Each structure stands twice: as C-alpha cells, then as structure tokens.
Amino acid sequence: MAERTEGVEPESWKTGGKYVEPGGEFTRDQRYIATRITADGRDGYPVEPGRYRLVVSRACPWANRLIIVRRLLGLEDAISMGVAGPTHDERSWTFDLDPGGRDPVLGIERLREAYLARFPDYQRGITVPAMVDVPTGQVVTNDYARMSLDLSTEWTAYHRAGAPDLYPESLRAEIDKVNDGVFRDVNNGVYRCGFAGGQGAYDKAYRRLFDRLDKLSERLRDRRYLVGDTITEADVRLFTTLVRFDPVYHGHFKCNRSKLTEMPVLWAYARDLFQTPGFGDTIDFDHIKRHYYQVHRDINPTGVVPLGPDLGGWLDPHGREALGGRPFGDGTPPPPPPEAERVPVEHTAAARD
Which of 41, 95, 321, 351 is at a distance of 20 to 30 A from 47, taking alpha carbons? Predict the structure, then answer.
C-alpha cells in the first residue's frame, strides 16, 4: 500500500505487521520520494517512453489510481507495469505472480531492491505505487498523488488519440479542493477508522467519514461527476475507495453505518464509473480482499478471507446517464486492456459469489 504500506513504520515489518497503536489515532506518514518525471527533466528524469516501469499492487487503492489514469490516457506502451502480489512478507512487496518470483523487466524479487538501489540506507516505507528507472533499476518516486497528475500533465506527448483531460487547467482549483476533503475524510478516513487504537479516535474518524460521504452524496445528487461534466482526477480518487468499501472497509475497518449499496447516490455513481472503460476493468476483488484480511493480522488474527459480498450488483444499470455529462469529454473510451494486464474473470464482478 502507499505510505508505509498503510502507515506502518519500517520496524513493524520486522515484527509481523503492526498497524494499530493501542490508544492512539492513526497518523499517515506522508513523506515520499518527491522526485518527478517531467517533460523538461528538471529532476534528472525526463519523460521517455520505455524508460520507466510502474510497479503496483491491484489490492492498493493508491496504486489503483495510477492503473486507472494510465489506462484512460493510453500510456500502456510508454510506461510498462509490474504487478506485485496482493500480500507481502516482512521485507516488502514481492513479485510472486511472475514466473520464478521475479519481475520480468526489473529482474528483482522484492520492490525493496529498487528502493535500496537508489537509497542504500532507506528507512521509510517500501510502498506502491512506485516508478522505477529501468536502466538503473532505481526507484524514482513513490509520491502517488503527484504521480497521477504528472501522467496527465507531463506525458501529454504520449497520450492516446482521444485521451480525456483528467486535470483541466480551468478546473484545477476546484478539483484540488474536492480532492483535499476526499483524501482527509474518505481515502484516509477509512484507515483512520480501521487503524484507530482507541474508542475516541475511532468515533472521531467514523463521524468525519460518514459526514463527508453524506456531503458527497448531496453534491452528486444532481450532477454526474464531482467537478465539471466529465471524468476528472477527482472521480478517480474517490472511486478507488468506494469500490473497496463493501468488500473490506465496511466490515474489516468498522466503517459500518451504511454499506455503499445502502447509499443510493454514491452506489449509483460508483456503478457508473465501474462500468466505464478504464475503471472496473482494473479491479481485482480477490487481490483486494486477500490483502486486507491476510496482511492486517492485528485486526484479523486468523487471516480468514470472507467469501462475500455478492459482487453482481456492480453490473446493474445505474441510471446516471439521465444527469447528462460526457464521460470522456471530446475524447473517446480507452480500448480494452492489453491481454497480459487483464484481471482474471474469476476475480471480477462478473464472477458472482
């Protein structure tokens, strides 16, 4: 996961994974490798097709953002993607999905090898998403929030024909404002509930989460998308939390005032995005559930992964077309994902529990 694999300090990796500090409030470590890949190469890493590899886990909501944006913009040929497994050992994310347990491009077994190649004494979290410089095998950045914006603004020369503008200049101030509230209370809010070490911290996080979800419901009641009349970065950021809400956050993180399926506006909005090319086709429900329930052993000591919920509802009609809006603006939907990057059908909403 992003940010110290969901806020875990490095020592916690060695002690079996400690995610909850008794009596305390969860505080996300937001210190990232701030190096940027830019068109002018001002940080020493210029935009260059084929040079960088995006390392993700489909379990992670922060990495899922990059997967979606890369798909929508058509950057698959310009930036290759390595997919780590849904769980990790005490050292870091591993490439156990690949033959021989090694990433076929980077040739490494664990993502930490790319971090240590650049920073031999690296003491922060080994996190996904991460962009790795293929020629040197060194991590470039794990600053996920900046990474997705840079895909939209710095990689324009390699966007597909018909790529949407996910961060239009005229709407950036509003997008940033919406994103700030969504991050504090929803994206990070579910973790503040799940990793709360005391009743007071949990109660505060719970109220903030559902207060924000109620406000978002009102915002989306008569508008199809969060900002403007097309899909933007704001929709991507909210979607990756909503799609995980019922499978993991409602039960595992005790975000249980309401399921997503019990919040009509947000449920319809999430289905609308899920059924939009580039969103639902990136979601691996099996990886999502296995990560949260098997890795967070101080929350779920048995590691038992629940069979539910039934995922078939994601494909039900949503009716949001009546609100107008144009998903891709003047652009077009992305083509189907490359064969090698398709989620196994048994891990998707098409496989009903």
Answer: 95
Q: Flag whether pLDDT at 179 surpasses 90.
A: yes
Nearest to 247 by CA among 278, 221, 284, 202: 284
Structural tokens at position 12: 């916690």
DSSP helix/strand/coil, 306? coil
2-158: CATH number: 3.40.30.10
From residue 228, how far is each of 139, 156, 217, 239, 323 by CA, in Å?
35, 21, 16, 16, 12
Residues 6+ apart with CB under 8 A from 195: 6, 7, 19, 20, 21, 26, 253, 299
Q: Is 191 a catalytic residue?
A: yes
Q: Which sequence spans correspond to the domains of the chain?
A: 2-158, 169-347
Q: For residue 60, indicate whether it is catalytic.
A: yes
User: Whole-structure pTM over 0.85, yes or no?
Assistant: yes
∠ Cα 168 321 309 (to 5°): 95
Per the document, the length of the chain is 353
Reduced to 3 states (helix: H, G, I; strand: E, B; else coil), residue 218 is helix
Residue among 32, 60, 167, 225 flagged as catalytic: 60
The Cα 69–Cα 79 span in angstroms is: 12
**How many Å apart are CA 69 and CA 74, to the nearest integer?**
8
pLDDT 10s digits, 117-139: 999 999 888 999 999 999 999 99
- Give dist(CA 303, CA 18) in Å, integer: 14
184: helix, strand or coil = helix
Q: Would 2-158 and 169-347 be classified into the same CATH topology?
A: no
Instruction: Indicate the CATH number for domain 169-347.
Output: 1.20.1050.10
In 44-169, which ranges are E strands?
A: 52-57, 80-84, 130-133, 138-141
